[in-house]
Amino acid sequence: IFKFLGAVSVDLGKDRIKPYLPTILTPLYRELNSTYAEQDPTLKNLSQEIIELLKKLVGLEAFSLAFSSVQKQANRKRAMRKKQRALQTVANPDIAARRKLKRHKNKAETRKRKIESLRPTYKAKRPRSHALKDLAMVE
Question: Name one Pfam family in it (predicted).
Fold first, then answer.
């Protein structure tokens, strides 16, 4: 898709690409600023190359305006999600408590995995499987 966006931008030319610049920059910006663990470095390099190509194509000033608008929009969305999450903890404390318990459980599992990788002789206690208990409709 990134290659397609680059090809379309080159094909459209300087004047016809300007209205579509924020739309093209949005996925490129998202890829550049992503922090997830399984990130593909080739995608990051490709998005950087296409951004450089767009900079040369439309000029630094037009590119900067479009890029800053994309950046502001992403920050606004991030702040909105954070606010919604904070409001949800107040509005639905039971859902927030479940989320917190799940996060703590995952954290403990990660810690056990990390210890096992550092010390192969050490075996952390694993929680027993309660498969039948989980299937039962017990409150």
Answer: UTP20_C
State the pLDDT at residue 115: 87
Residue 61's closest CA among 14, 16, 8, 116?
Answer: 14
List, for residues 59-87, the tens digit of each pLDDT value. Answer: 999 999 999 999 999 999 999 999 998 89
pLDDT at 128: 67
Q: For the packed helices 93-118 and 60-91, what is the interaxial angle rounded to 10 degrees?
A: 110
Residue spans of the chain under pLDDT 70: 37, 124-139
Owner of token pair 């702040």: 79
Query: In 10 A of CB 44, how many CB atoms?
Result: 15
By the 10 Å C-beta count (0-12 exposed, 13-18 middle, 19+ buried), 21 is classed as buried
**Residue 81 C-beta-side C-alpha neighbours within 13 Å:** 6
d(CA 90, CA 84): 10
Domain positions in the chain: 1-135
Q: How far is CA 6 from the centre of its chain?
A: 22
Q: Which of 33, 30, 27 is nearest to 6 (CA)?
A: 27
